[in-house]
Structures are given as C-alpha cells and as structure tokens.
Amino acid sequence: MLTLGAIPISLPVVQAALSGYSDWPMRALAREMGAPYTIAEVVIDAFVNNLKERARTRHHLLVTDDDHPVGAQLMGSDPDSFPAAAMRLVHAGFDVIDINFGCPAKKASGRCRGGYHLGQPETAIRILQLVRDTVPPQIPVTVKMRRGIDDSEKSRDQFFQILSKAFQIGIAAATIHGRTVEQKYIGPSRWEFLKTVRAEFPNATLLGSGDLFTATDCVRMLKETGVNGVTAARGAIGNPWIFQQAAALLRGEQLPNAPDLHQQRDLMRRHLELAEFALPTEQFLRQVRKFCIFYSAWHPEHLKVRQAFASVTTSEEWSRALAHWYSENQPGCFPENPGNLNAGSRGNVEDETNASGE
C-alpha cells in the first residue's frame, strides 16, 4: 500500500503534475478512469501569492469534492515566499504540498528555482523546512527531485544531502526522476539510480519518474526498482486508461484491449464537458483540442484524425470532426512509439515548466 503521510493511495500509479496539462479537467477525468491521486500543474510561489480571486482565474486553484486526495506542486526561488503560497494552497483544499526540485528549464530572469536548487543544498533544505513548519501537520509535504544537477560526484553528494535531510525533517515522500537537470529530456531516464536511492533509504516512501509512457512501463519500474509508487506524467496525456491498465497488470491480468472508438469518443466528450465547467470560455476549446491531438493516437487512422483536430477553431468544427471520425465503432489501437509522441508534442511537458499557471 502506497501512503503519503496518513493518506492511503489505493494504486501505486498516480498522475504527476504536468505543466500546461494537469488542470482540473484532466485530473477529474483521470480520477474517473482510476487514478487514485493526482497532482495539479506546478505553480510558482509568487503566482500563488498574487493570484486574484476572480471567475476567470478560479481554475488555477480549483478543488472539488471528487478530487481528493489531490496534490499541489510549488516551485520558486525565494524560500521566504514559499510558506504563504503553501498555506494558500492548503486553504484552497489541496491535501498534499509537493515541492518541485525537478524542473530543468532555465528561466529568462536567471532566477534559481526548480531543479537548480539541487546545486544549493542549504537553500533547498530551508525551503523544505519552512514549508513543513508552516502547513498543518496532517498535510503531507513531499518533494520532486532529479538525480542531480549533473553526473558529477559533487552533484550526487548534494542530492543525497538534500534527500537525507528532507526525511529527517518530516517530508512524507520523494519522487525521483532518473535524469539530471542538465540532461533535461535527452537520453534515457536511469532507473538504476532509483534502486540506489531505495538501498540508501529502505524505509522511506519513494516514487519513481521518467520514461513512463505505458502501463507496462509503470509496472516494470515498480518491479525493477523497488519504489513504492510511480508517477505517470507524459504517459498520462491523452491516456487516462493508463491507470486501469496498470491496475489490471498488477492484478496479474492481461493488458486490456485498447479502447474502441466509441469509448474514445465518449471520453473526449466528457473531457470537453469538464473543460467547459472549469475553464474560461476563451480557453476551454484550445485546451481540449490540445488533448485531442493525443487522443487521436488511439485511432487506427491517427495521422488523419490528429490533423483534423489540430485545425479546429470552433466548437462546431470540433463536434464535426468527432462525428466524422468516431461515429462508426471499431477497435482502437495502442499508440505507436508513445515516447516519441509525447516528446515531440511540446518542449518540456513532463510535470515541470510553465509554472506561471498558464
């Protein structure tokens, strides 16, 4: 059983924070499809502290009764601004505060945040201490980390210095991504590093991240590394079925068939319905269209369907595209090269970047 503090998580496959993607509609749909725990898009501390309570911005901190448990991921450069932002997220209804020390994107402002805190352990530890001291004790504080700034011995030592202190001060769990900050998304994620971390912290709650594009990947990481759970990031975009599929595999069953076209159609309609509820009028169709490009990968004629959705600009055009390509039911297909599909869709899509909440 995976637990985050006192919060039980029924399946060891959860939805990661995904910048530009894991908004409330994606999270709500993932929960409906079997995700036991989801994390909202990473937000910068200053953005949270300065966010005005307006109808058009409510989706940034939206939590509903069906969300729980749900986490909020926080990133920033100034340790002293983290506590207020963390408390605002708690008051919004988030059950877990996750600190991002994994983002590999250098910001134009030159500020050090995200993964770059791994190169300054004192600051990273201070952030964790401040947040843990500030939020109520029943709210778990977790941390997302890459395996270091680079592959140097110094970077490795700093990683373990931060993680060791994190557990000492009461951080409930750590998610470890098997790439370095400098590596960004180039090359494979080193899952063997997760085994090293597990050996160093045999009793800690650890989650793994990196190159989890299918349910089979998720189950394989669990078995090969000994982590308590895994976070489906890019592999969950346009694939909310990943949670049901992983659950079946963990029960010892065969991998379920790909969803047929009517199942895909119904899910896409549901996504639009959720987006209309949560997002501003000028945003919801653009956001759903982005997801439909990923959903199209499950269609036997995925290239044509992808192009059809990429070109829609109105709700009417979206409905016509859906009716044209999904009216006749037939078996779906698993996406070809899902890792390449996700990597090519958007520069830094996996649970890191775009922390302004766009």
How many domains, as an integer? 2
CATH architecture of the largest domain: Alpha-Beta Barrel
Structural class: alpha/beta
Large-scale geometry: globular
Which class of the largest domain in CATH terms?
A: Alpha Beta
The radius of gyration over CA amounts to 20 Å
* Helix-strand topology string: EEEHEEHEHEHEHEHEHEHHHHHH
Short summary of the structure?
This protein is an alpha/beta fold.
Task: Fill in the keyword field for this structure.
2 domains; TIM Barrel; 13 helices; disordered C terminus; 358 residues; 11 strands; nine-stranded parallel sheet
3D structure, described in words:
By secondary structure, this protein is an alpha/beta fold. It folds into 2 domains: 2-250, Aldolase class I (TIM Barrel); 261-333. 41% of the residues lie in helices and 12% in strands. It has 13 helices and 11 strands. The protein has helices at 24-32, 45-50, 82-92, 121-134, 153-168, 191-200, 215-225, 242-250, 261-278, 281-295, 302-310, 315-326, 338-343, and strands at residues 2-4, 7-9, 13-15, 38-39, 43-44, 70-75, 96-101, 141-146, 173-177, 206-209, 229-232. Strands 3, 4, 5, 6, 7, 8, 9, 10 and 11 form a 9-stranded parallel β-sheet that branches. Strands 1-2 form a two-stranded antiparallel ribbon. Helix 2 links the parallel strand 5 and strand 6. Helix 3 (82-92) packs across helix 4 (121-134). The chain is globular and about 60 Å long. The two termini are 34 Å apart. The model is unreliable at 343-358 (pLDDT under 50).
Set down the secondary structure blueprint.
Layout: E1 2-4, E2 7-9, E3 13-15, H1 24-32, E4 38-39, E5 43-44, H2 45-50, E6 70-75, H3 82-92, E7 96-101, H4 121-134, E8 141-146, H5 153-168, E9 173-177, H6 191-200, E10 206-209, H7 215-225, E11 229-232, H8 242-250, H9 261-278, H10 281-295, H11 302-310, H12 315-326, H13 338-343
Parallel strand pairs: 3-11, 4-6, 5-6, 6-7, 7-8, 8-9, 9-10, 10-11
Antiparallel strand pairs: 1-2
Helix pairs in contact: 1-9, 3-4, 4-5, 7-8, 9-10, 10-11
